[in-house]
Write a structure and sequence with these properties.
Mean pLDDT of chain A: 82
Order of helices and strands of chain B: HHHHHHHHH
Number of strands of chain A: 0
Shape of chain B: flat
CATH architecture of chain A: Orthogonal Bundle
CATH topology of chain B: MetI-like fold
Structural class of chain B: mainly alpha
Number of domains of chain B: 1
Number of strands of chain B: 0
Shape of chain A: globular
Largest sheet of chain A: none
Helix content of chain A: over 70%
Structural class of chain A: mainly alpha
CATH superfamily of chain B: MetI-like
Mean pLDDT of chain B: 90
Number of domains of chain A: 1
Radius of gyration of chain A: 22 Å
Order of helices and strands of chain A: HHHHHHHHHHHHH
Strand content of chain A: under 5%
Oligomer: heterodimer
CATH class of chain B: Mainly Alpha
Number of helices of chain A: 13
Low-confidence stretches of chain B: none
Low-confidence stretches of chain A: 249-267
Radius of gyration of chain B: 20 Å
Largest sheet of chain B: none
CATH class of chain A: Mainly Alpha
Distance between the termini of chain A: 48 Å
Chain lengths: 267, 220
């Protein structure tokens, strides 16, 4: 305890650029998370639509695909992709990424990390969305069909707005998990907050103060706690307002995070 | 195709020892997570305000903290601070404490599902609060949250790879896979078998918990 709160061990925080350096690393994590979230949501929805298809020829392979990716450790997927992504793709990635993106994202390695995050999270989000859609009463879709709506219209105007709204809490907790998982890309040497943290603890860094590992990583952890708490508070507030507005009867899955949120009965 | 089998037959000892380390890591961490998670859940539903607070702070902290950062704190951080913690203790404790937050939340919802009425009934029969929890509420709560516990075990199997990736001295399935890949330089074949190892564990856990659910679960 005395070690933890000893002012000497916190001196690094206000010395030189240490804190700014950590914070810049953290911004890289947030950017990686933002890109991965957009693509995971898009692909997750596409996979969910494939999985609920009535044609087994479509739903079966989609099911296998999803079950394989979501049952593998994300770090395992990222490490494999770091080895297996063809050079041509990396080249295409570094050509395609706009110049105004931060330097850390220009790194060719980021492609493997992003692919891994999207492959894994789109599979998990697919399951969340699918269970939201399936929790909807069959009658909704039958009624829509009997009104003469096409498949696309049924999905767009009847099934998805209701089904996805029910799964907002589970989706948000998965996105928080995704945000935490961006630290894993440090293992393939992308310069983000964990890497920056390790540099700060090296001897003779900014200001010549060698930062203690314990305190540095407590600060990093606090950054994540603050952002993730803000995210979940925001989503809870939106959810309450939305429920008041639409009167949807949703069994709260609040507080059940990660995979737990998938399992709760949402009917 | 033959290369695929060759990789397995030549490196079976590495893969199986990695699988065994991952299994033990998850098993020990699960025990830690269940014990701590139950305690935190009991704090969360206790009739005392400040006990609720403590439970709430625990859950919000560990749920929002990346496991990798927790591992840095628990191993490298404590070691630099002069605590001679072993990789096994740091790994299982981190994974266990991290998962405990999720288990606590699952159990809390299980306790609420049991219902206020049963708590009131037990208390009015003269049982103390801890006794009410232990004898009446928690046994039922556990049975309600079996499916949630199942998916948490699967999440633990996957998260154990993070432990293996960050602690040098813990040769789990991920580390053995990377080791074999470094020797053979055949990423596709080696990672295929690593994936089979992880899928073996997760599919087994799925089947086991589906059985437990059929056998013990209370449907609400």
């Amino acid at each position: 305890m005395t070690y933890l709160f000893d002012p000497d061990n916190w001196e690094w925080l206000w010395t030189g650029n240490n804190f700014r350096f950590l914070f810049e690393g953290f911004l890289v994590n947030l950017q990686i998370a933002a890109i991965a979230i957009v693509f995971s949501l898009i692909f997750g929805l596409m996979l969910a639509l494939l999985r609920i298809s009535n044609r087994r020829l479509i739903s079966f392979p989609a099911g296998i695909w999803v079950d394989v990716w979501r049952n593998l450790p994300l770090i395992f997927i990222i490490l494999y992709l770091a080895l297996a992504v063809p050079d041509a793709w990396r080249q295409a990635y570094s050509d395609a990424i706009p110049d105004f993106f931060p330097e850390a994202l220009q790194d060719e390695l980021v492609l493997g990390a992003l692919l891994g995050l999207v492959l894994y999270n789109s599979a998990v989000l697919c399951e969340i969305m699918r269970s939201g859609i399936l929790s909807l009463d069959r009658g909704q879709r039958e009624a829509a069909a009997s009104l003469g709506l096409t498949y696309f219209q049924q999905m767009r105007f009847v099934v998805l707005p209701q089904g996805l709204r029910r799964m907002v809490p589970a989706t948000v907790s998965q996105l928080i998990t995704l945000n935490k998982d961006t630290t894993l890309v440090s293992i393939i040497a992308i310069q983000e907050v964990v890497r920056h943290g390790s540099s700060v603890t090296g001897a003779g860094f900014f200001g010549g103060v060698q930062a203690p590992i314990l305190q540095v990583f407590i600060v990093i952890g606090l950054m994540f706690v603050v952002v993730n708490l803000a995210l979940s508070r925001l989503s809870r507030r939106l959810e309450i307002r939305e429920r008041r507005r639409t009167g949807t009867t949703m069994k709260p899955v609040e507080g059940l995070e990660d995979q737990v949120a998938l399992q709760t009965d949402t009917t | 195709m033959s290369e695929l089998w060759e990789v397995l037959t030549e490196h079976l000892p590495e893969f199986s020892s990695g699988l065994w380390v991952t299994f033990r890591l998850v098993a020990i961490a699960f025990v830690v997570a269940m014990v701590v998670g139950t305690l935190i859940a009991a704090l969360r539903v206790a009739p005392v305000r400040w006990l609720n607070r403590i439970g709430g702070v625990y859950v919000e902290t560990f749920r929002n903290l990346p496991l990798l950062v927790l591992l840095f704190i628990a191993f490298a951080g404590l070691r630099r601070a002069g605590v001679p913690i072993s990789p096994w203790v740091a790994g299982t404790a981190s994974l266990g404490l991290y998962t405990a937050a999720y288990i606590a939340e699952a159990l809390r919802s299980g306790v609420f599902a049991v219902g206020r009425g049963q708590i009131d009934a037990a208390l009015s029969l003269g049982l103390s609060y801890p006794k009410t929890m232990r004898r009446i509420i928690l046994p039922q709560a556990f049975r309600t949250v079996i499916p949630a516990l199942g998916s948490l075990v699967i999440a633990m199997i996957k998260n154990s790879a993070i432990v293996g990736a960050s602690l040098v001295a813990l040769p789990d399935l991920l580390k053995e896979t990377r080791q074999v890949q470094a020797e053979t330089a055949q990423p596709d074949e080696v990672y295929f078998w690593g994936a089979v190892g992880y899928l073996l564990l997760t599919v087994t856990a799925t089947i086991a918990f589906r059985y437990l659910e059929r056998r013990f679960a209370i449907r609400r």
